[in-house]
Amino acid sequence: MKKIIINGANGFIASNFIHEMRNKNYEVVALVRASSKYSSEQRMENALSEINDGEHVNFNKLKTYSYSLLDDDFSITEKQMENIFDGDVDFFHFAASLKFDKKTKDEIFSINVNGVRNAIEVFLKYATKKSRFFFVGTAYSCGKFEGLFKEKFYPNKDITQFRNYYEQSKRFAENVVKENIDKNRLNGHVIRLSQVVGNSITGVTKTDYGIFDFAKRIHSLAARYPNKTVRVHIDPYSTQNLIPINTVVSYLMRTLEVNELPVIMNFIAKNSMKNIQLINGVCKLLPINITLVGHIEVGEMDALERIIHAGMSFSGNYIDTNILFDTKNLNSIILSPGDEVNEKNIFKMMKYFFDNISSNGGKQILAQAV
Where are the domains of the chain? Predict the structure, then answer.
C-alpha cells in the first residue's frame, strides 16, 4: 500500500480525505503550516477533531510535519524529506489561497501558482519514478466559459476571461502541471473540484465556503432584523454545482486504487441545484423572506438589501452561472456515481450549519489550507 503525502492537510477537504484514509489504514504524511498559536501537529489534530464533532481521532500511521510551501524543500531537512518520500508515494497538493480580489493578486499567485511550482520541484527531487503527483484544483478554472468544459488543459487567459483572480491563478497552476508533464516527465494529474458542501447522508457541514458563506451572512441579518422581506440580485433559475464532501472523498479514495488514471478529472455533480431551491431552504430555516430578482440597481435597494449586496463580493460572481462540465474521464474510474445534492439533503446541511453557528457563537470552520 502506497504512502500518501498531503500538503495543506488541515483544510476541509484534505482533512476529510485523511480521516477516510486512516479508516482504511493508509500511511499518511500530513504537511501543515504551523501558526503563531498552534504547532502543525495541533492544527492537524484540531482539523480532524472538528470534522468529527470533537470525537476521538485515530492518529496511528499519521505523521505530521511543519512545512513552508514556498521555501526550498519546504524548510524540511534533507534527511526528513528522504524519509517522507521513501518508496512509491501519491502526493496530493491541496494547499491554496481562497482569496480572489485584485488587491491580493500577488499573494494569490504566489501561493496558487508558485506554490504548485515549488511543490513539483520538491516532488521531482525526492519522489520515485512510479510516484504520482495530484494537483487539487477547481472546476471554476473554466472561467467565463461557454459550452462543455472538457477534461483537458486550456491555455492561460487574461483576467477578463475569469470572474476573479482565484480562478485565473488555478488555470495558470494547471498549466504549471502540464509544463512539467511535457518537459520533466512528471507523473502528474489534475483534479478539478466544483463547490464542495457538507455530507449528503449525515448533513454534517464543516465549511462556510460558497453558498454557505452567503447563508452565514443571511443568518446574521435574520437574527438582527427578523421577519424582514429583502430582494437579492440573484437569478432564481441559474445553478450552483454542489458536490457533497462524502462523494469527493469516495472519488479521491478511488484514485488511490486505480493504477492508470486520466491526466485530468472533473470531480463535479451531474445535477446542479437552482438558486431558488437553495434560497427556499434558507427561508424555511430562518425568519427572513428572500425574493430573488434577476436584476436590481444598488440605488433601488434599501439599507438591508445593500448590506447583503455588499457581502456578495465573491458569491455574486456565481449567481447567474449554468456551467456544463464533461465527466468522461471521471466516469472511467468510478465504480458507481456518488451521492448528489438535492433539496432534501441540502436542507439537512443548512440546518446543521445554522445550528452549529448558533452553538459556537458564530464561529465557523474549515476552508482550504496553505
Answer: 3-196+242-267, 199-240+273-321+341-359
Cβ-count burial 298-317 (b if 16+ within 10 Å, e if not):
eeebeebbebbbebbebbbb
Q: Provide the pLDDT for residue 296.
A: 87
Find out whether 162 and 171 touch, Cβ atoms under 8 Å.
Answer: yes
Calculate mean pLDDT across residues 35-64: 88
What integer pLDDT is reported at residue 53 of this predicted model?
A: 81
Q: How far apart are CA 140 and CA 310, in angstroms?
A: 22
Cα–Cα distance for residue pair 75/204, rounded to 1 Å: 36
232 burial level (CB within 10 Å; 0-12, 13-18, 19+): buried
Q: The whole model's pTM is what?
A: 0.94
pLDDT tens digits, one per residue of 184-215: 999 999 999 999 999 999 999 999 988 999 99
How far apart, in whole angstroms, are the C-alpha atoms of residue 171 and residue 139? 10
Q: What is the strand order of the sheet 89-93 is part of? A: 62-66, 27-32, 3-7, 89-93, 132-138, 188-193, 264-267
The terminus-to-terminus CA distance of the chain in angstroms comes to 27
Q: Place domain 3-196+242-267 in its CATH homologous superfamily.
A: NAD(P)-binding Rossmann-like Domain (3.40.50.720)
CB neighbours of residue 24 within 10 Å: 10
Least confident of 14-18, 149-153, 228-232, 314-318: 314-318
Q: Is the dihedral of CA 151, 194, 191, 200 positive or negative?
A: negative
Question: Of 243, 242, 264, 253, which is closest to residue 136 (Cα–Cα)?
Answer: 264
**Which stretches does DSSP call E strand in the chain?**
3-7, 27-32, 62-66, 89-93, 132-138, 148-149, 188-193, 195-197, 228-233, 239-240, 242-244, 264-267, 273-274, 288-293, 324-325
Our CA angle for 259, 264, 269, nearest 5°, is 105
Average pLDDT over residues 288-294: 92
Residue 323 neighbours by CB distance under 10 Å: 22
Q: How far is CA 324 from CA 189, 247, 262, 263, 267, in A?
A: 21, 19, 19, 19, 12
| pLDDT tens per residue across span 100-126 | 999 999 999 999 999 999 999 999 999
